[in-house]
């Protein structure tokens, strides 16, 4: 027979601990604020790769010429004044070195090429110009390559941060493998510069060029998020989260008694606020991935809570005369093995993601790990604790009501007895 664990004895400790963490997190959110990502604040989100020049390419002729560099090939697209277009595709597998690739580029009518790197370098390392697509003109466009070893640009996050100190608080994350020298850089728009969206890329590449060399900066992508868009996105995320809580309340109200529904909502609100505290105090970037992590954990937590509630309700049904705490402890104890197996399986996946990924995925997996622990904890020590509190309160009120009714009955009986005293017995005649 499974030994029943007395979970109710720990509620006086676990509930205050949760309240302390939540209150501290809310105070921290007000005092410290969130480390908002570019999703929730206006600013620039760019992907920069530090790659030395491979060659310079220019075009002189009628019409236009553009160059698009993909993972496996480079394509020149020529458009004549008449509107006709023609594509020249050069697969890296057919031109294994930069020298072979540059010689092939020279066969395109009107295109001139000047090789700037070691011609023996692998052509698969070839990269295009900033913003991926280059509109070629008579002015040479600088193309790059992901140099390896001694030819690679020496760079790290702290060096990037130091070179961009003039921009204030800048968020920097590595994107991809360390050998790629690719980073996501996020710069907040303070609102002081009205031309921020138009000039920020030029300023960014200029500052990085001073430290790492002007020809070594490759802008793979850049997105500017306006203030109104970021504000609307944040508001939508808040309403989405609140709407989730309301739907959980409605669902649990139909499936369980109101006390269970309120306990379920309190447990998921607890999980969300615990994650808020974690994000605030670790200064983790708060973005759409954070919202996704919170909603993921809310879904996991409510599933675990409903399983526990079902087992408690089952115990109450088969032993209605037993104290509620006894049924609750037995129900939670019997679901422990299922809870541990489930959370361990998900934790293994989350830990693997945290270990082997970088950037936003690494932050997302860390939030999931924290949320899994919080969700498992809240299903037992918050959701069950509230139902226990509710039932204890109802039982006390019922006892008090009985005592009041008994007191009223006793008072009425005494008043009736006082109003109708027993008559003295008549003396019998002899």
Describe this protein with a few key phrases.
Alpha-Beta Plaits, 54% helix, four-stranded antiparallel β-sheet, elongated, Multidrug efflux transporter AcrB transmembrane fold, 14 strands, 18% strand, 430 residues, alpha+beta
Short description:
The chain is an alpha+beta fold.
In CATH, the topology of the largest domain is named: Multidrug efflux transporter AcrB transmembrane fold
Tell me the overall shape. Answer: elongated
Range of strand content: 15-25%
Report the strand count.
Answer: 14
Query: Helix proportion of residues, in percent?
Result: 40-55%
Helical stretch tally:
9
Structure, explained:
The structure is a single chain. The protein has 430 residues and is α+β, with helices and mostly antiparallel strands. The protein is built from nine helices and 14 strands. The strands form four sheets. A four-stranded antiparallel β-sheet has the order 11-12-2-13. 30% of the residues are buried.
Sequence-ordered SSE layout with sheet pairings:
Layout: H1 11-31, E1 35-36, E2 43-50, E3 53-59, E4 64-69, E5 73-79, E6 85-91, H2 98-105, E7 111-115, E8 126-127, E9 133-136, E10 141-145, H3 157-163, E11 170-174, E12 182-188, H4 196-212, E13 217-225, H5 227-255, H6 258-282, E14 285-286, H7 288-318, H8 324-356, H9 359-419
Parallel strand pairs: 1-14
Antiparallel strand pairs: 2-12, 2-13, 3-7, 3-10, 4-5, 4-9, 5-6, 8-10, 11-12
Helix pairs in contact: 1-6, 5-6, 5-7, 6-7, 6-9, 7-8, 7-9, 8-9
